[in-house]
Amino acid sequence: MKLFLWLCLAVLVYLALRKSFRANMPPSNRNQDSANTSQEDWREDQFVQNPSAKQVESMLSCAHCQVYFPASESVQRGNLHYCCAEHADIASKTS
Ligand SMILES: [Zn+2]
């Protein structure tokens, strides 16, 4: 069991060293082990694209305070959209 722990530690140290070594490598040397890095680059691209894809959500303007907010958070009363239930209630009372 103790041997297994040492083995895990060795693998972790190896991975950490390999990662830092690869980061310091110039791009020309990086291409040599392209079979490994291309897959990692693809995963990094996916990771980078995901947050921006989330920001593409359409924005609506509150009919009461004109604040812009994500469409998924809108409170709808009739044809109008509001940023929160309070503003929807205020608008429905005053009209
Ligand atoms: Zn509002």
UniProtKB/TrEMBL annotation:
Superkingdom of the source species: Bacteria
Stored InterPro entries: PP0621-like
Comp. bias (Polar residues): 26-39
Region (Disordered): 23-47
Protein name: Uncharacterized protein
Annotated source species: Undibacterium baiyunense
Organism lineage: Bacteria, Pseudomonadati, Pseudomonadota, Betaproteobacteria, Burkholderiales
